[in-house]
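I am still getting used to backbone structure tokens and would like to learn alongside you. Please make up or recall a protein chain and show it to me in full. Would you write everything just below, so we can both look at the same thing?
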Amino acid sequence: MRPAESCAFSSARSRPCTCLTDADEAASSADMTSNEPKAKKSGGAEAAEDGDWSWPLVAALFVSTSLVFGLMRSLGVFFVEFVQYFETSAQAISWISSTGLAAQQFFSPLGAALCNAYDTRLVVMTGGFLAGLGFILASQATCLFHLYLTMGLISGFGWGLVFTPMVATVVANITRRRTLALGLGFSSIGIVSFIFNPLFQFLVETYAWRGALLILGGLSLNIVACGALIRPKRRSKAPEKVDSEKKSSCASMLRRLSSYLELSLLMERPYLTYTLAVTLLNVGYFVPYFHLVAHSRQVGFSEYQSAFVMSAAGASDILGRVASGWFSDLGHFRLLHLLTLWTALAGVFIMLLPVSSLSGSYTALMAISLLYGFCSGSLTSLVFAVVPMIVGVERVMGALGLLQLIESGAGLLGTPLSGFLKDVTGTYTASFLVTGGFVVLGTLTMSTLPHFFSRTDPPAPRRRSHDKKDKSLHLELEQINSSPPDTKEVNDL
């Protein structure tokens, strides 16, 4: 081959290679361009909401919530058995459920911190195991203290590791239909209350209370399967490197602990205002569930009529959770405004409950009870759906944990306050008027939130690093909590 032909052949042979390289670069550039929004979207909740795995998480929330609060509401079947077996007072037995509820709310921040530090799937599965273990050990109790320790502390600790992480997982994975998803998940509480009471009574009559508790322990272990549905979260390796370099520093450990617990939220006015509003709401929210039946019987209605009033309110509560979730996700109104509306109506209807029965009209009492049940169910899912708008989705886990801890005191205060007012006045009228006033006061507190009167939601805040001296840690935290980098930046790394 002559030099000229060789040169031409070489040139011709190299030209397709050049064109191929250009095509590859163009395709790569196009892929990067097309993948850039996908990368950004995949890190947000919209992508998760459009995925196939979001609604199985709602089913997991449905089951786990029913095995926490639905089961907690139905333990009254065992109280009569415990009073007879241990030959003690009903007040001493009532501390079992009180201990479980207090433990669930007290350990919620710990559950949120463990999820931030490790993996949500592992935390929820551990909580399900502890919840089942508490009931299994309770079936072998020989004294009342064993029940406090097992059904109260161990199972309550497990519940604290389950409820907040499951709610935060659904909130982080669904945005467009978030309120409906929460409403469907929380509707299990009312549904299983109708199922569990006769079921537990049948189990007690068939297997005695020890065998029934053993079955409840096995039933609670289904929470482990619910936790297994949570996908493990992906972590960046950069913060791990920064943390490993500063493990010996006590100050760094305290900073990490504060970050896991999201204690910086306690220094932010919007979160404190919202927490105060929910706490005031919690003072009166549960009072009708405890004292409405007793009030109905006191004003002259029969036992069955009084019980049916509470059952009707529970049924409308379920309807309110689903209907409110569906309507809220239509986007016609801000979630905060809808929450304020349902909260105000719930407070007003609580105060109208004794007024409606003064005339002796069972129809009026039933109508107000149905309206209260609907409003109380409607606001439940909104309370959790508004949290990411206050603090941002990336901090919702710790925010829900702290909210559970702070509002727990108000929940435990409301019922004793109502009982005290009844003892002083002789009727439940003052009890419902005062506790309903707390709910309305919570509504007024909510209206002081920044941008409350705006027609659109302000942008959700992002996590901020407060350590100005450690610039590398600041950069890593900004990298984690900002929107995901585009494909080109990922390739560069």
Notes: The radius of gyration is 27 Å.
